[in-house]
Amino acid sequence: MSRVEELRRPARLAPGARVAVVAPSGPVPEDRLMAGLDVLRGWGLDPVVAPHVLGRHDGFRYLSAGDADRAADLQSAWCDPAVDAVICARGGYGVQRMVDSLDWEAMRAAGPKVFVGFSDITALHEAFAVRLGLVTLHGPMAAGLDFVKSARAQDHLRATLLAPETVRTLVSDGTPLVPGRARGVTLGGCLSLLAADRGTPHARPSARGGLLCLEDVGEETYRLDRDLTQLLRAGWLDGVHGLLLGSWARCEPYEGVRELLADRLGGLGVPVAEQFGFGHCDDALTVPFGVAAELDADAGTLTLDEPALA
Hints:
Organism: Streptomyces pilosus
Order of helices and strands: EHEHEHHEHEHHEEEHEHEHEEEE
Radius of gyration: 18 Å
Helix content: 25-40%
Keywords: Carboxypeptidase, Hydrolase, Protease, Serine protease
Structural class: alpha/beta
Distance between the termini: 23 Å
GO molecular function: carboxypeptidase activity; serine-type peptidase activity
Shape: globular
């Protein structure tokens, strides 16, 4: 994958679809999980919880369970022919510890399914794109506080899953950081995870040809600078067609973050649109990755060529 290309779209969900909830990263609060499951049931879906979702690693309490157990949960859910979609319960940290333990041949043979998550799940979005060639959804997670408390986030994810033709245009709340229009294929996620993926055996070689979506949470400006500079120095941003910027929650005041983003990204000579409302923020939108689209930074819109799901 020398440049970002359109990927296979899984089928949209229908009432009664079985949705497996997995926890590839951090520990999951039971009350929030129960609330999220109720939301999914309210949509007419049939959520099932993987065995280790409420687990906790014996030594590292920031992990939901051991690496082998987290990998087994994800692989079993994906390879179960009765499962139509896999939704992550939350992010945190842990995907990088288990992603190379997955049987990617078996998962490819299981066929395309819907996959949803964000934050640490960025590492799985990249792996699903490179190793399975599948469109995935960067969106709210089943036990996320931002999901269970936000009608807007719920409505947008529900529409993307069940009626994707109704959400082909996403609208920004901000002004263009760099004006202009660009076409490309969507990709991206959490900046720090994309930077950490460089040099790993199956990493995407570049964002060439893509519309790159970036966001992060709880990072000081110098750390965001380091990650952006790493992507620039590695040549990973060479040939990118445009950038969409999401939330920078719990980072330093946005004015300083914005100055950094303009400094590091403004010289690429491509449109850059900010405040697109995805990532670690209230009322987060769901953004499909692997879909051809047009970015109009002046209008603050991302318009998909076709619905995210087939």
